[in-house]
Design a protein that fits this description.
Layout (H helix, E strand, L loop, with lengths): L3 E7 L2 E9 L4 E3 L2 E2 H5 L3 H13 L6 E8 L3 H19 L3 H5 L32
Parallel strand pairs: 3-5
Antiparallel strand pairs: 1-2, 2-5, 3-4
Helix pairs in contact: 2-3
């Protein structure tokens, strides 16, 4: 039994992913994918996209823990982690996932607030009088 580990990142979220041969069960933070994401169907599809592209929907089990950020960042981090784990599991999957941008870490994060400004770039409101 081969157990593969990978980490995925997005914004301030980190997903630790363990991939094992199995029946297609996805567990995130001790919950099933449906219980973890609730009614967010689009996010569920994004998480399972690497599995469907490589046709591994029913042949691998995924156990993951996510921290930081919100559901959107965590689900994208999970997607990145699953993609990296699949490439370690079978290097042939790299050619399938790379054109879809699944292996690229989306490095966009919130810009820091600057002194003298209301937000990162928003200046205080101008008052003529």
């Amino acid at each position: 039994m081969v157990k593969t580990y990978a980490t995925g990142k997005r914004k301030t979220s980190i997903a630790k992913v363990w991939l094992t041969p199995g029946t297609g069960k996805i567990t995130v933070n001790g919950l099933s994918l449906d219980a973890w994401l609730g009614g967010l169907e689009a996010k569920k599809l994004r998480v399972t996209q690497p599995l469907s592209l490589t046709k591994q929907d029913t042949s691998v089990d995924i156990n993951a823990t996510t921290t930081g950020g919100g559901f959107s960042g965590q689900s994208d981090a999970l997607r990145h982690g699953i993609s990296k784990a699949l490439c370690t599991f079978d290097p042939a999957f790299r050619a399938v996932l790379k054109p879809y941008g699944m292996l690229t870490r989306d490095s966009r994060i919130v810009e820091r607030k600057k002194p003298g400004l209301r937000k990162a770039r928003r200046s205080p409101q101008f008052s003529k009088r």
